[in-house]
């Protein structure tokens, strides 16, 4: 496919980070495919140095348009709120930080394509990872008519050194030639680290991979307590001070990170069928999900709370597998949203030496009744009701036991023993 067929050039929107891979992608799309390139760089809270410089770099390389979009509030308010409502943890561990940002970036790329008349969207993902699936399924869900180009899956560049040589030959600025041994992805919800020595699941993660969190051994020797206020499941205050959700996430990344909270080291099942060893730093996500779960134990009835556990696993798997814009995931969102109507209150968390512990929770909608729960003199529970309840509750297993279970099995033996006794007496 070559977009330049002797007529006006076709336009392609490129997810652009300013790094080596996407910079080579930008030039490769021009040289090898004949595209006019529109670069879109989204700030979802990553450790970017200067988005303005990234925007300008794309223009200097010949992009016909370049956008640096601050998506942090949108990411927090429209994506992280849904993740928190679902207590989103893939395989009960990973808070989905990369999986959550891809559909947002895809949404903005599709909007740019519509606004500027592009018929193609490109990304810099490899053929082995999850992100190619997340980008492409999101784009297809939002506009199936757009065509997708994945340069890294097509080009004949087999290693970073070959990319660097290609970049130099085609005037692509290369800031450094030394490759970090790790692949890093970060945003408001945390930081993902893979590759290098981490590819050996027996190797302990080196100390230099961690940047958001202190080593627990070096964390302060005193605990810090934080109080997180929630309104219908969404964090709305920290230590009594009202603030936007995005600012609460930022503050907790610092506070919890200083206490060594939020380090994960796991082997996860990738969508493409391989197992991958991943390390994550998720201080704010860890504290907020634990706090949110604690508040739900007060505010959700038992049946809803138990059923929601299965919904949460389905939700996390759908998001991990790139199905953010899918009927199932949106239906699960609706269920989770319905459960959050009364999840309002405050949770107190203790941060200390790598652990965050719930030490208190309160809510104006609490279903916890002290007088019913107490074993003291104020106990309002009717103990005399218990026997009748147990008789009725146990009726199905009582009936089963008598007809098909242990009691039924014992009956023939009892009859035989009675017959033997009667025979002995007669003799």
Automatic annotation (TrEMBL):
<feature type="binding site">
    <location>
        <position position="94"/>
    </location>
    <ligand>
        <name>L-citrulline</name>
    </ligand>
</feature>
<protein>
    <recommendedName>
        <fullName>Argininosuccinate synthase</fullName>
        <ecNumber>6.3.4.5</ecNumber>
    </recommendedName>
</protein>
<keyword id="KW-0067">ATP-binding</keyword>
<feature type="domain" description="Arginosuccinate synthase C-terminal">
    <location>
        <begin position="182"/>
        <end position="398"/>
    </location>
</feature>
<keyword id="KW-0963">Cytoplasm</keyword>
<dbReference type="InterPro" id="IPR014729">
    <property type="entry name" value="Rossmann-like_a/b/a_fold"/>
</dbReference>
<feature type="binding site">
    <location>
        <position position="130"/>
    </location>
    <ligand>
        <name>L-citrulline</name>
    </ligand>
</feature>
<keyword id="KW-0547">Nucleotide-binding</keyword>
<dbReference type="GO" id="GO:0000050">
    <property type="term" value="P:urea cycle"/>
</dbReference>
<dbReference type="InterPro" id="IPR048267">
    <property type="entry name" value="Arginosuc_syn_N"/>
</dbReference>
<dbReference type="GO" id="GO:0005524">
    <property type="term" value="F:ATP binding"/>
</dbReference>
<feature type="binding site">
    <location>
        <position position="268"/>
    </location>
    <ligand>
        <name>L-citrulline</name>
    </ligand>
</feature>
<dbReference type="GO" id="GO:0004055">
    <property type="term" value="F:argininosuccinate synthase activity"/>
</dbReference>
<comment type="similarity">
    <text>Belongs to the argininosuccinate synthase family. Type 1 subfamily.</text>
</comment>
<keyword id="KW-0436">Ligase</keyword>
<feature type="binding site">
    <location>
        <begin position="15"/>
        <end position="23"/>
    </location>
    <ligand>
        <name>ATP</name>
    </ligand>
</feature>
<dbReference type="Pfam" id="PF00764">
    <property type="entry name" value="Arginosuc_synth"/>
</dbReference>
<dbReference type="InterPro" id="IPR018223">
    <property type="entry name" value="Arginosuc_synth_CS"/>
</dbReference>
<dbReference type="InterPro" id="IPR023434">
    <property type="entry name" value="Arginosuc_synth_type_1_subfam"/>
</dbReference>
<feature type="binding site">
    <location>
        <position position="126"/>
    </location>
    <ligand>
        <name>L-aspartate</name>
    </ligand>
</feature>
<feature type="binding site">
    <location>
        <position position="131"/>
    </location>
    <ligand>
        <name>L-aspartate</name>
    </ligand>
</feature>
<dbReference type="GO" id="GO:0000053">
    <property type="term" value="P:argininosuccinate metabolic process"/>
</dbReference>
<feature type="binding site">
    <location>
        <position position="183"/>
    </location>
    <ligand>
        <name>L-citrulline</name>
    </ligand>
</feature>
<feature type="binding site">
    <location>
        <position position="124"/>
    </location>
    <ligand>
        <name>ATP</name>
    </ligand>
</feature>
<feature type="binding site">
    <location>
        <position position="134"/>
    </location>
    <ligand>
        <name>L-citrulline</name>
    </ligand>
</feature>
<dbReference type="InterPro" id="IPR048268">
    <property type="entry name" value="Arginosuc_syn_C"/>
</dbReference>
<dbReference type="InterPro" id="IPR001518">
    <property type="entry name" value="Arginosuc_synth"/>
</dbReference>
<dbReference type="GO" id="GO:0006526">
    <property type="term" value="P:L-arginine biosynthetic process"/>
</dbReference>
<keyword id="KW-0055">Arginine biosynthesis</keyword>
<dbReference type="GO" id="GO:0005737">
    <property type="term" value="C:cytoplasm"/>
</dbReference>
<dbReference type="Pfam" id="PF20979">
    <property type="entry name" value="Arginosuc_syn_C"/>
</dbReference>
<feature type="binding site">
    <location>
        <position position="280"/>
    </location>
    <ligand>
        <name>L-citrulline</name>
    </ligand>
</feature>
<feature type="domain" description="Arginosuccinate synthase-like N-terminal">
    <location>
        <begin position="11"/>
        <end position="173"/>
    </location>
</feature>
<comment type="subunit">
    <text>Homotetramer.</text>
</comment>
<comment type="pathway">
    <text>Amino-acid biosynthesis; L-arginine biosynthesis; L-arginine from L-ornithine and carbamoyl phosphate: step 2/3.</text>
</comment>
<feature type="binding site">
    <location>
        <position position="130"/>
    </location>
    <ligand>
        <name>L-aspartate</name>
    </ligand>
</feature>
<dbReference type="InterPro" id="IPR024074">
    <property type="entry name" value="AS_cat/multimer_dom_body"/>
</dbReference>
<keyword id="KW-0028">Amino-acid biosynthesis</keyword>
């Amino acid at each position: 496919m070559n977009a330049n067929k002797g007529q006006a050039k076709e336009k392609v929107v490129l997810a652009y980070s300013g790094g080596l891979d996407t910079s080579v992608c930008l030039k490769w799309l021009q040289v090898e495919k004949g595209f006019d390139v529109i670069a879109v760089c989204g700030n979802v809270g990553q450790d970017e140095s200067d988005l303005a410089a990234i925007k300008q770099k794309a223009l200097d390389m010949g992009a016909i348009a370049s956008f640096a979009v601050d998506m942090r509030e949108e990411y927090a308010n429209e994506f992280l709120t849904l993740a928190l409502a679902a207590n989103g943890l893939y395989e009960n561990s990973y808070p989905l930080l990369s999986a959550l940002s891809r559909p947002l970036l895809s949404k903005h790329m599709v909007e740019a394509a519509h606004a500027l008349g592009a018929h193609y969207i490109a990304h810099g993902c490899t053929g082995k990872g999850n992100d190619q699936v997340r980008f492409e399924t999101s784009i297809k869900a939002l506009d199936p008519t757009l065509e997708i180009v994945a340069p890294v899956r097509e080009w004949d560049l087999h290693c970073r050194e070959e990319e660097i040589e290609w970049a130099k030959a085609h005037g692509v600025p290369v800031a450094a030639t030394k490759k970090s041994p790790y692949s890093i992805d970060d945003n408001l919800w945390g930081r993902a680290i893979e590759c290098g020595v981490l590819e050996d699941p027996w190797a302990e993660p080196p100390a230099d991979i961690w940047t958001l969190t202190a080593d627990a051994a070096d964390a302060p020797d005193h605990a810090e307590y934080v109080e997180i206020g929630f309104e219908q499941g969404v964090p709305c205050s920290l230590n009594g001070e009202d603030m936007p959700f995005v600012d609460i996430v930022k503050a907790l990344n610092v506070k919890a990170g200083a206490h060594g909270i939020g380090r994960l080291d796991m082997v996860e099942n990738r969508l493409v069928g391989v197992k991958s060893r991943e390390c994550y730093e998720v201080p704010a996500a860890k504290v907020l999900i634990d706090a949110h779960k604690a508040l739900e134990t007060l505010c959700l009835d038992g049946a809803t709370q138990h059923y929601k556990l299965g919904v949460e696993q389905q939700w996390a798997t759908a998001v991990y597998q790139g199905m953010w814009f899918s009927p199932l995931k949106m239906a699960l969102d609706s269920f989770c949203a319905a459960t959050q109507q009364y999840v309002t209150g405050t949770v107190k968390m203790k941060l200390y030496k790598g652990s965050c512990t719930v030490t208190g929770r309160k809510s104006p909608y609490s279903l916890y009744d002290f007088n019913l729960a107490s074993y003291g003199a104020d106990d309002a529970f009717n103990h005399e009701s218990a026997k009748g309840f147990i008789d009725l509750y146990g009726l199905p297993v009582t009936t089963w036991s008598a007809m098909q279970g242990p009691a039924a099995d014992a009956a023939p033996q009892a009859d035989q023993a009675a017959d033997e006794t009667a025979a002995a007496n007669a003799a």
